[in-house]
Amino acid sequence: MATEFVIYTDESVKDGAYFSNFYGGVLVRSCDLEEVNERLASIKAEQNLHGELKWTKVTGNYLDKYIAVMNSFFDLVASDLAKVRIMFTNNTFVPKGLTSEQRQSEYHRLYYQFIKHGFGLSYSNTEHDGPKRVRLNMDQMPTSREETAKFKAFLEALSRNPEMRRANVNFDKQQIAEVDSKDHDLLQCLDVVLGAMTFRLNNQHLVKPAGQTRRGKRTVAKENLYKHISSRVRIIYPNFNIGESTGTQGELANRWRHPYRHWKMVPSNHERDMTRRKP
Q1: E strand map for the chain
Q2: Could you report the per-residue pLDDT of 4-18, keeping only the tens digit for each?
Q3: 22 with 12: CB under 8 angstroms?
Q4: Do 257 and 127 form a contact (C-beta atoms < 8 A)?
Q5: Cβ–Cβ < 8 Å for 108, 143
Q6: Is 250 helix (H, G, I), strand (E, B) or coil?
Q7: Phi and psi at residue 72, in whole multiples of 5°?
Q8: Contacts of 256 (CB under 8 A, 6+ apart)
Q9: In what order do the strands lie in the sheet with 19-29?
């Protein structure tokens, strides 16, 4: 019987001040999915959070409630019941030699690379022998039905990738779906983590309203939530650098094993524009 990995994915800011093209994913083994969903639903109910959790909804009044949910979520991550991956690009690395078609399809091309490499699925055979099936639930995409169908066909073709074949990982087109984050607590938690990293990497914690000398209350609340999320990541990995790719500590299989990882995606053909770096 095949082992099944259920992956939820989302994307965030495409053009940030310093970092762009944010993609996030959370992977749960299907045998753990019921427990994971129950624990997240329970903490949301306990906190009287009956609507959709989103980074954009974070305010001072809801800060403690969001912290409680993030604690439950990162308890799952720390115990490896859920694996989180965040990918982004640094604006100082400017791609060179892209065709107009490549530029036009950048969104899906980066999404494809994230799914192919982000979780280290090609190393999953170090933990799971036998066949492995991926069930992919992607937050609704801002692209046409035709473009999305073409993208799903590319994802299905990953099953024929030599590295995936060696690891016995299969992508079934019937198991690749767009879903509504309102129906999935895991996607909502991912949205919050992804939003927090986007917020801090692009220095949005420093933003002040026009004409004001102090930051807005919502900005302060978001910074406090980011700090809490960051502290939970650093319990797993002390001195974690959110703006760099997470190392493998000498073992490439850690691309799969690690419960939480970041990937700063650098184009193979690029030039550096240091005028776009963070001050």
Answers
A1: 3-11, 19-29, 83-90, 93-95, 132-139, 169-179, 260-264, 270-272
A2: 999 999 999 889 999
A3: yes
A4: yes
A5: yes
A6: coil
A7: -65, -40
A8: 119, 120, 121, 122, 123, 124, 126, 127
A9: 169-179, 132-139, 3-11, 19-29, 83-90, 260-264
The Cα–Cα gap between 59 and 46 comes to: 18
Q: Read off the tokens for 97.
A: 């030699």
Residue reference for tokens 């767009």: 178
Q: Structural domains in the chain? A: 3-276 (3.30.420.10)
- The answer to whether the predicted template modeling score (pTM) of the entire model surpasses 0.90 is yes
Report whether pLDDT(99) > 80.
no
Residue type, 102: Q
User: How confident is the model over 145-180, as pLDDT tens digits?
Assistant: 888 888 999 999 999 999 999 999 999 889 999 999
Q: What share of the chain is helix, strand, coil (3-state, %, to 5)?
A: 50, 20, 30
If you ran DSSP here, which 8-state letter would residue 265 be given?
-
Tell me, rounded to whole angstroms, the distance of Cα 19 from its chain centroid.
14
Q: At 81, list the tokens.
A: 């019941």
- Between the alpha carbon of residue 15 and those of residues 6, 21, 143, the distances in Å are 29, 7, 17
